[in-house]
Design brief:
Layout lengths: L1 H24 L3 H15 L3 H6 L5 E3 L2 E3 L1 H11 L2 H9 L3 E3 L2 E6 L2 E8 L2 E9 L2
Antiparallel strand pairs: 1-2, 3-4, 4-5, 5-6
Helix pairs in contact: 2-5
Length: 125
Amino acid sequence: MKSILVLAMILLILPTQSFAQSKAKALDPAFVAFLTKFKAAVAKDDKEAVAMMTQLPFLFDSKEQKRDGFLKIYGKLFTARVKKCFATAKPVKDGDIYEIFCGESIYLFGKVNGNYKFTETGVND
């Protein structure tokens, strides 16, 4: 009888945990729409579109890059390897931000004035 009660409790708890975990991993539909456009711009190497979806000024090598500076460093941010990674990368939600891991780099996205933007890069340690 005790084992039936324990089994019943486990069966009641498991679906709740699965639902909570799937809920926590759910992506904001607005972010999904943004990321779809962002990935397409990266795939087409559309620097202008990527710049428009980026929080500017953009901090790179401890220097703030305005639009023209961002366009100049674009090739360093989005190498052929990174472009390939972006094609299949799945974002990870971390608090209020989303991250995409590509090799040694992390690409971060967050809301800026109510709209999602590419906000910064970091080192994947």
